[in-house]
Amino acid sequence: MSEKQDQAAPAQSSENESSDAQQPKSLNGRPDGTMAEAESELDLDKEELEEAGDALYPLTIHLPHEPNNIRVMVSPQEQVHELRQSVIELPSAFQYSCFHLEHASERINDFVQISDVNGLGPEAEIRLVEDPYTEKDARLHVIRIRDLVGAAGDRTDTLHGVLPGVSLFDGVTKSAKDTDNVQASAFDFDAPAKPSTLIPEEEEPAPKTVKSIALSSWNPPPYHFRQKGHLLYLVVTTNEGEQHQITSHVGGFYVNKSSNSKFDPLPRAAPKGHSAHSLFTLLGLISSSFSGSFEQLLQYNNRKDPLATFQLTNAIPSAPWLVPSQSSSLCAHTADITRTQEGYLISGVDNTDTLRDWNEEFQSARELPKETVQDRVFRERFVSKLFADYTDAATRGAILVARDEVTPLNPTEGRDAQIFVYNNVFFSFGADGVGTFTSEGGDDAARVATGKDVNGVRIVNQLDIDGLYSPATVVVDYLGKRIVGQTVVPGIFKQREPGENSIEYGAVEGKEFVAADERFAPTFAKLSKALRVKKHPVWDKDGKRWDLEASVETKGLMGTDGRKYVLDLYRITPLDVLWLEENGGDEGEQKELEYPHRMTVLRPELVELVRNQKWSEWINKEVARLKEKHQIKSKDEQPSEGEKSSEGEKKSATEDKATEEDETDASKDENKEVVAEEQINGSDFDFSLNPDVYSGQVPQTEAEKEELAADEEQVRNACKHLRESAIPEFVNDIKAGDLPFPMDGLSLTKMMHKRGINMRYLGKIVTLCEGSRLVHLRDLCLQEIISRAFKHVAGKYLRYLPIPLTSACIAHLLNCLLGFGLNSKPTADIDESLKTLYPEADLAFANLTPESLRQEMETQALRRFKYTLDSEWYNQIKHLQLLREVSLKLGLQLQIKNFQFTSASSAAPATTNGVNGHTNGDSKESKKKKKKAREGSPASISSPTVAPCTFTPDDVVNVVPIIKDSTPRSVISEEALEGGRHSIMQPSKRRIGQELLLESLTLHEQIYGILHQEVARAYSTLAQIYYQLEEKEAAVDLAKKAVIVAERTLGVDAAETLLYYLNLALYMHGSGDSKTALAYVKHALDLWKIIYGFDHPDSITTLNNAAVMLQHMQAYHESRIWFEQALAVCERVVGKQSLPSASLLFQLAQALALDNESKSALGKMRDCYNIFLQQLGPENNNTKEAETWLEQLTQNAVAIAKRDKDVQARRLRAGIRFPARNAALGSGAGVAASQPTSLNQPKSDKPDARSIDDLIKFIEGNTAQKKSSSTKQRTSRGGPNVRVAAAAAASAK
Fold this sequence. Notes:
With 1293 residues, the protein is α+β, with helices and mostly antiparallel strands. A five-stranded mixed sheet has the order 2-1-5-3-4, covered by helices on one side. Strands 6-7-8-9-10 form a five-stranded antiparallel sheet, with helices on one face. The chain has a five-stranded antiparallel sheet with strand order 12-13-15-14-24, sandwiched between helices. α2 packs antiparallel against α35, α23 (762-768) runs antiparallel to α24 (772-798) and α38 packs antiparallel against α39.
C-alpha cells in the first residue's frame, strides 16, 4: 500500500503526460511515412545536428557610440539578420536600426549564414556602421522608438480584440511569495467559480519617458526639401512640457526651426540645436529627464517575465472571453494622435509596402531546397513565418468583408455569391451562393465543405509532395458568417474559350463532365497513396468511364505559372454511409428532422486507424503462414519504432507486433536464416478506400458493378469500425482512465477527432455513458451538444444583421439561454435610433423567448446529433461553463461582472432544483451565486427594459474571429524531439539524446518563434523528460515557459494551460519549493471551476498531490483537509466502494494519525481494509498492508486510551476543569465548521461525538502520537487545506 502512496506525485505526471496527447507525437509529418524512415533520416542527420548544437562562439561588435563594443554569442547556422536583431535588442544598442555590419572592411550580406562569411569565426570582430536613412527606414525607426520608449498608446485591433495574449503567470507567482504556510494551503473548495480569476491585476501605469512623438502637421516634406534629403517631420513633446519640431533627414534626426504656425525645417542654432543619427539619442539630448525615466521604464518592464511582454509575431494571440470593464486601467483608452498615422508609418503613402503576392511567395517557398538540415530549417522557418503573416492578413480581410467594408467583384450577384479580392487574397462566403451544393444540403453543406477543405489543404501542406501545389486557405467565422480566404491561383480568373474549362482533372460543372489530364496523374497518385485513396472509375452524365486517382470532387488546375494546383479537398475520405442511411429523411415532418447535409465524411484519422488494423491482421496472417510453412521459431527482434499511426495514436499489442515484423523486413537481407523468398513483403499489402462510393456513381458493366460493390463493402466496414470499435473504445478508455478526462468542449473535440470520431456522434456517446465516472462525460457531451446547437441558432440570426445591432442580438440570445432565472420574459434591448437607420434589417431575434429558443435548440440537437434533450435540460445546465463554451465558439468578449443568472427571491427553491444536476458542485455553485445575486454590475440594471436582465448589449464588448488555417507543423523539429526521446531511453545513446533534445528546442524556437502554441507543447514535453532525468531546475524553467506561452497563445483558461500549471506545480515541489507549487495548484483549481465546474475526475489526483506537498511542508493538519477533499470528490465520482477511494482512505488515515486524530484514523483505515478485502481478497498485498496498519493503529489507540484514563483520573483528583471542546480544538472542529463542504460532513460525525476521553487524548496524546507517527514516517507524504483556526490551534498546542 505504501507503494501506492509513493506514486501519488507521479500520478499527476501521468495525467499531464496524456495532456500532451493533443500534441503530435509522430516522427515524420508524412502520414504514409514510417518511423523507420524517420529514424534513418535521423541517423543521417545526427552528425549535422550535433555540429549545429555545439558550435556557439563569441563575437565582438564595435559600435560607433558608447559603450563602443559589445560581445554576443552566435551559432554558425544563424542568419546575419538574426544577429542584427540580437544586437538591437541589447540595451546598449537600442538606438540602432539603420545600419550594416562589416567584417575586415567588407560589408556583410544580411541574408547569408554566419558560417558563409569568409574568415568569420570565434573571437572575430565586426563593425556596426550607421547607414543613411530612406523614407521607409525612417518610418520604421519612428515606430520602433515609439514602442521602445513607451510613447505608443493603446491600439484598437479588430483581429486581436481586448487584452490579446495576456498572461496571469507573474501575478500567480507573486501571490505565492507573499504567503506563509497557513495561507499557502488555504483554499475554499466550495466557493463558486470566480470569473475574476481570468483577469490580470491592475497595475500602476508605466513611467512616461516623453509625452508624445507624432508626425508633424508639416509632414510630408515638400518637393524641394525632399530633394535635399528630408524624409519626415516629427513633433515631440517632452516630459518638461517643451515641444520640439524635428526633421528626419537621410543623415539622421535634428531639431528644426519650425513651429506650429511657421515652417522652417532647417537645423536650429545652438544651444537648442541638437542632432543625432538615432531619434532615441536625440530624445536624450532634448529632454533632461529622458534617460532617468527610460531607466525606470526598463525596470518596470523587467518586473515581468520577458515572455509575458514579447510581441507575438508567428501566432495570433489568444483573446480572453472575459475582459475588464472599460473603466479599468487595463483597458484605458489614451489620446495618441500617432495611432491614426500608424497605417502610413507602416505601409507608406500608397499602402504598397505591405502588398504581397501571397501565392508566388507560398509556391516559391515550397520549391526551396530541402537536402540538408540547414536547408530544411531555413525552409520550414520561412514557411512558418509566411503562413503566420498570411493568416493574419487573410483574417483581417475577412473581417472587413464581413463588415461590408470591401467592394465585391460581382456586386450584381446575390449576397452569398459575391466574391472579393483584398490585399491579394481571394474571399468568398462559406454558403451555397451559386447552387453547387443544392443536392448535398445547400448552405449547411457548403459551410461544412469549407471546413473540410481547409483541413484537407493542411494535410496536403504537411505531406509536402514535390510538384503538387495548393492555395493557402483560411476559414474565418465571424458574427454568423463563414468567409474563406485563399491565395489567388494564377489563371483562375482567366477568360476561357467556349467549351474550354479551367479544371484539368476531376469534376467540371458539378459532376456532369469529368476531366482526366494525364499530367496530373503521377502527382495525384502520390497524394492518394498517402491519403489511402483508391484509384477508381467514375462516370460522367453520358456514362463514359474515367479512371481517377482522387475523388471526383478533388480538382486539378494548371496555373498560368505552369504549376499543378489541387483544389476542393473536402472529399478526401468516403461518406459515412451508415449515418446517411440512418438519418436520411423522407417527406413531410421527417424531412425537417433529417441531418442538414450529406457532407458526412469519415475523418482521415479513422481511415488511418482502420488501415493500421488491417495491416496488423495481414501481418499476423503472413507470419502464421510462414511459421506454418517453415516452422521457424519467432525471433525476438529488437523492436523498432513501427508503422506510424495517425497523429501519434497508441497502437494495440497486435499492432506493435505487426509493425515490429514490418521494421525487421529491412534487415532480413542480412539474416542468413531466412531466404529472400520467405520475407514478408510490405509492398504486397494495400489498403485504400474509394471516396466516391454512395455518391451517385452509375457503373455501366457487370464487372464495374461488382468492383463498386466491393468498394462499397469496404467503406461500410470502415463505418462499422467507427461505430462498433472506435466509439465504444473511446468511452471505455476514459472510463478506465487510459485517456485523460476531457475538461471542456475543445479538449473533448480534440480527443474525439484524434480517435477518428466525428462530432455528430456526440449523441451516441451520451447513450453509452453509464456509471458514476461516465456521468461526468455524459454531462460534458450534453453541454457540447447544447453549446453547438446554440451556435447554429445564433449564427442564423446574426448572419445578415447589421454590425451595430449584433450586440443587442447576442445579449438577447444569452438572456434567453442563461438569464431566464432572473427574467423569464426578456425583451431585446434595441436602440431605436439604430432601428430607423436599418429599416430593412431582419430583427427576428427580438421575437425570441426562452421557450422558442429552447425549441429551436432542441430541433438542432435532434437534427445534428440525433439526440433528444431532456424536457428539463435548461434547469440542469452549468451556467458559467455553458457561457464560456458559447463565448469561445462565437468569439465573444464579455465584460466581467458577477453574472446574475437567478433572482434573489427564488434563491431557496432554485437551490433545491439545482440538484437536478448529478454533481453536488452544481447546486453549490448556483447557491453561492444566488447569495451574491445583488452584487451584479450596475450595467446589468442600467438597461431600459422593464425588468433587469442578466446580459445587456453593453456587456458584449467585442467579437473576435474564429480562425481555421492550413499551416503545416514543422517536421524536422518533431523528428529531433522524437529522436532525442528514444535515444535518451537507451543508456548508450543518452548523450546523443540530450543533444537532440536541446537541438529540437532550438529548432522549435527558430522555426515557430518563441511565442507559439507548438513551442509551448515542446517546452512541456521537454520539461517532463528533464524531470524524469532528475534535471529538476531545467524542468522547472521549461515548465514556466510552457505556462506563459500557452496562456498567451492558447488562452489563460485553456485546458492545456491548466495542465501545464499542474505540471509546473509538480516540478516545483520536486525541486523543493512546495509553497509556490501550492499557489499553482490553487490557481489550477480555480481555473477548473471556471472551465468544468466542481468534481472533475482528474482533480482527485491534483488534490491528493497537494496534500502530499503539505505533508512535506509538515503542515499535517492542513494536508488532512486536502486528503478529505480528494476522498470526497473520489467517492462522488468513482463511488465509495471503489479501489481509488480505498487508496485515498489509506492516505487519509495516515494524515489523521499525523494530525493526532488516531480514533478517526482507525475508522478510515478500517473502511480502507474492508474495501480492499471485498474488492481484492485477503491475499492481496494492499489488503495485507492495510491490515497491518489497522493492527498498529488499534494497538496505539488502546495504549493511548489506557494512558489517558490514568491521566484523567489524576487530573480529576487534582480538581482540573476542562474547557469546552470547540474552544480547545480550534484546529479540529473549528476547521470542519469553517469548511461548509459536504465532503467534510460525514467525517465530522465521529469527531463531534468524542467523549472527554478523546479530549484528554488530544491534549496529552502528543508523546504517544509521536511514537505512533514514527512508525508511519515512510508514508507521511500528504497535505490538506489550511485555515487560520488551524494555525491558532497548532500554536495553542
